[in-house]
Amino acid sequence: GAGSVTGTGAGSVTGTGAGSVTGTGAGSVTGTGAGSVTGTGAGSVTGTGAGSVTGTGAGSVTGTGAGSVTGTGAGSVTGTGAGSVTGTGAGSVTGTGAGSCSQPTTCSALQYRSKYSSSRISARPP
Fold this sequence. Notes:
The structure is a single chain. Strands 1-3-5-7-9-11-13 form a 7-stranded parallel beta sheet. Strands 2-4-6-8-10-12 form a 6-stranded parallel beta sheet. The model is unreliable at 109-126 (pLDDT under 50). The longest helix has 20 residues, at 104-123. 16% of the residues lie in helices and 49% in strands. The chain has one domain. It has 126 residues and is of the alpha/beta class. The radius of gyration is 16 Å and the shape is flat.
């Protein structure tokens, strides 16, 4: 594609589309779409869609959709949808939907609200 792909180190860097993909270190960085994907360290960073995905450290960071996903540390960070997901440390953070979350408890509450507020509460008869 027409994007910019830069690989430094022993890792694997793959860019498909018009985005910018930058890999530094021994990790695996894969960018597909018009987004920006940056991987630094030994982790695995995968970006699909128009979002921004940044992985730093030994963790696994996956971003799908138009959101912003940032992972720092040894944890696993997964973002799906238009939201913003930030993971720092050794934990696991999963964000799904259009909200913003920074830790598992926040994400769980967000998923509950987005799932049930629109269906059960709004569909409740007056």
